[in-house]
Amino acid sequence: MKILGKLKRIKDFFLGTKIRKIIFHVVVIGIIVGLLIIVSDRTIRYKYTCSVTGINLHGTFYTYIPEGAEDDPDFDYDSVASENIAGAIEQANLDDGIKAILVEVDSVGGSPIAGEEISIAIKNSEKPVIGLIREYGDSAAYLAISSADKIFASKYSDVGGIGVTMSYLNNVEKNKNEGYTFEQLSVGKFKDSGNPDLPLTKEERDLFMRDINIVYQNFMEAISINRNIPIEKIKKISDGSTVLGEKAKELGLIDEIGGINEVESYLEEIIGERPEICW
Q1: Beta pairing partners, 23
Q2: Is the dihedral of CA 260, 222, 243, 164 positive or negative?
Q3: Burial environment of residue 77 by CB neighbours within 10 A (0 to 12, 13 to 18, 19 or more)
Q4: Contact (Cβ atoms closer than 8 angstroms) between residue 158 and residue 136
């Protein structure tokens, strides 16, 4: 209450005469302008200190995240959408203040289409893209980052996993034991193929394996091109297994052993100044 009383007396003093009213308004306007200058200056300085755009590739890969997915209790929150990553790379290329892009990877993969879309966006970037694999850079996640200009990883990082899977759990025997009967209502011989409540026929298995082998071949060819490794060498290591960082470097899957400190030192070399990374 004492503070309010003091403020009232200050207001009464300034508003007591016409000249005081003018002074009061001038002071208020001066304060507002000053605050706007300070905020604007900080915004400008912040904007121009960002010389590197940081992008995270964390969790399961999808092509997009459905609208309202955050309200679904079954939604995998640890996920990334390739359309968002491609958009972030495009925005970084349009920003004159950004001189390089750092993509941090910690993922065991997901959709091969999402991995391909990110890989293409990285390849088409006009600005250098540096990859940093932390704990995991496997399967579609490795496909995504394989087109980066340079890839760093820890000697403990899990890298590679060049292979394809469509494996699933068959519920036929479980349903039989629990008294469930699957009533099939579909048109088209293969429409229900892969339904976990139906036994998988040889024809269906052959159909799936046909597509799996096509994806597998495309995966190996993409790594061969992106990493400039002969396809025959890629085939020898494409058994679906992963390797640790030092072995990954030996095989040509990454370029350097290191973490964020080594990445920042390299960025400083290629952009000619101490990098300021904005995530």
Answers
A1: none
A2: positive
A3: exposed
A4: yes
CB 64 within 8 A of CB 16: no
51-161+241-278 classified as CATH 3.90.226.10: yes
Measured in degrees and rounded to the nearest 5, phi and psi for residue 126 equal -80, -20
Per domain, the residue ranges of the chain are 2-42, 51-161+241-278
Cα gap 245→131, rounded to integer Å: 13
Q: Give 86-141 pLDDT, tens digit per residue.
A: 999 999 999 999 999 999 999 999 999 999 999 999 999 999 999 999 999 999 99
Contacts of 223 (CB under 8 A, 6+ apart): 142, 143, 146, 162, 229, 234, 238, 253
Q: Which of these, 127, 144, 41, lies nearest to 91 by C-alpha position?
A: 127
Measured on CA atoms in the order 137, 144, 151, 132, is the torsion positive or negative?
Answer: negative
Please, are residues 81 and 108 in contact by the beta-carbon 8 Å criterion? Answer: no
Token pair for 117: 């879309």
Per-residue pLDDT tens digits for 43-98:
444 445 899 999 999 999 999 998 877 777 777 778 999 999 999 999 999 999 99
Q: CA nearest 228: which of 123, 147, 164, 113? A: 147
Q: What secondary structure does DSSP assign to 172-204, as a single string?
A: HHHHHHTT-------SSTTTTTT-TTSPPPHHH
